[in-house]
Fold this protein.
Amino acid sequence: VLKDATTFFSRSIPNLATVIPAMDLIDNELTTASLDTSKDLALCVSIGIAKKTANRYYTKTDESDLYRTAMNPKRKLEYFADNDWPSDWIKTAKGIVRDLFDDKYQFEVEEIKSVEPSEAARTSDNMFDNAKQLYSRKRMQLRDELDRYLNSDVKDVDNVIQWWVDHRQQYPSLSRMAFDYLMIP
């Protein structure tokens, strides 16, 4: 598994979107191998030590908020649920993404929606029936980019960076966040 991981990551520049799934795969493979009773006991113990060492580095990702940014449109937060992460970990991950987005990338987007005068008022000769100042204006907060992105379906994409390039118009602030974090090798 470690040879395969080295070969895989040597073929291209790894990014944060691939680190956690790779670490989970390594952990699963080492767990399975360490429990394999058909293997020599010394080998199982050695594999267990390798797993413990790998997990020591894996837990370092908990000190970094970066991996939780869920910026891979192919996985989003669904990756964590699909891999049986505890719901409180997923909630924490989403909260970290939300806080990061709100603190550094979010800008307020408001849509002004006018309440139009009735048909009778529009055809009236009375100047007050047609006075725009007398009609209320309703502010409606649009769902922000992060909510729209996380609530949309996962996408079948091969190139995550290109996906964000192609969706910069749809997610202007979120795409900046994605570029900032996904470009980290």
